[in-house]
Amino acid sequence: MGPVNWLAVGAAVAAALLFSALWYGPLYGRVRLDEVGPGGLGIRSAPGRTLALSAAALFITASMMGHMFARVGAETLAAKPWLYFMMSGGLAIAFVIPALWTSYTHQRISTRLALIDAGFWLLAYLAMGAVFWLFKA
Question: Does residue 1 belong to any structural domain of this protein?
Answer without folding.
Answer: no
